[in-house]
Amino acid sequence: MAKKSTGFLDTQHRHPMHHPARGGRRSPTRGYAPSRHPRGSRHGSARSTSTRGTPSAKPAEVRDFFFARHNYLPEIDAAAGRLAAEAALPVGRMAEGIAGRLRDRHGIRIEEAERGTLRAFDAAARVLRLSPRISPGQRAFQLATQLALLELGDQIAALAAEGDFRSAEAERLARTGIANYFAGALLMPYAPFLAAAEAESYDIDLLARRFGVGFETVCHRLSMLQKPEARGVPFFFIRTDRAGNISKRQSASDFHFSRIGGTCPLWTIYEAFARPGQILTQIPEMPDGRRHLWIARTTTRGSGGYGAPAKTFALAMGCDLRHAGRLVYARGLDLRDPAAATPIGAGCKVCERPACPQRAFPPAGRPLAADPGVSRFAPYSGG
């Protein structure tokens, strides 16, 4: 059974934000840290020692694979662009053309999938089954993913093999992620998508309408625009549920999410659940003084009608404050005023802010303030 996805990989983990200091090599597990592979190396190992041997190790390896490449796969992006031009696929209306290519070149017919299945390919019967309950944009995405597996199978396998994964399962997850990357790049070809993003000041809703995809799919694509000669804003993208389980995290910059401690409750992504469907903005400041612009919004989707369970997530996109002026979401915000920033941290267990009233755990590396005669507004402060 295929799993519903509108981006390159769906996984579930708790990870706080972490922004390492400038000037080091990019490590998939600890942000900037010594590494045997140069920053952005296409041949860096995807192995994650912090999760070795656990059920979460496989998706963690795949996330590290993409992170080490700054979430940009030039050969896959280029292949998608060539195919879009060769097939003359119209932007925003590609599903019919992709389905025609699957039929004419690969002899594949498309049928309705059984309930609970998003996409299933029967290679022997040459039948691709798709859920009838998905949106036109999701349908186009799934068609494009299947096209990638058929036409770029060897190239995808070779690229995944560079990850030096610890198991066949992790390598298969990587191949799926690369195929999904291709799908996003096909539906939103690099040059026209970047031009539209700049022209619309990165307005995600407007881009979604123009390219015929969903809000979340646009967020994914925006985090991939890192071609050296034509870079977009280097975004970080995250998806979480109400319990703080982070199921997607991508970064085109050196901002990373560390692997311990939880996330900060003062971060606007959690406020989004209280205001569903609205786009919220925030200028958070990390303990090291770095500030970013974040936007957050909820998304809800389900596969059935009335009474059927649905999934609700909060999505957040962020960038370094020096890029914020290029975004429509910065309008009306005083980007220069330090008082406009919200102090947040990387999760209570690792946060260095001892006087935070929202603190849930004692700050790491500090003496525990435990005086029966004193009670403070900020838990564990003082001492």
Globally, the shape reads elongated
- Tell me the strand percentage band: 15-25%
Could you say what the CATH topology is called?
Arc Repressor Mutant, subunit A
Main CATH class: Mainly Alpha
CATH architecture: Orthogonal Bundle
Instruction: Please tally the helical runs, counting DSSP H or I stretches of 4 or more residues.
Output: 10
Mean pLDDT: 84
Q: Determine the fraction of residues in helical runs and give it as a percent range.
A: 25-40%
Distance between the termini: 55 Å
List how many beta strands DSSP finds.
Answer: 14
Task: Report the radius of gyration as a whole number of Å.
Answer: 22 Å
Can you describe what's shown?
By secondary structure, the protein is an alpha+beta fold. The chain has a single domain, classed as Orthogonal Bundle (Arc Repressor Mutant, subunit A). Helix content is about 30%, strand content about 15%. It has a five-stranded antiparallel β-sheet with strand order 9-8-13-12-10.
List the helices and strands and how they pair.
Elements: E1 26-27, E2 31-32, H1 57-67, H2 74-86, H3 95-106, E3 109-112, E4 119-122, E5 127-130, H4 136-151, H5 153-161, H6 168-187, H7 190-199, H8 204-211, H9 215-222, E6 226-227, E7 230-231, E8 236-240, E9 246-251, H10 268-271, E10 280-282, E11 284-285, E12 292-302, E13 310-320, E14 342-343
Parallel strand pairs: 3-5, 11-14
Antiparallel strand pairs: 1-2, 4-5, 6-7, 8-9, 8-13, 10-12, 12-13
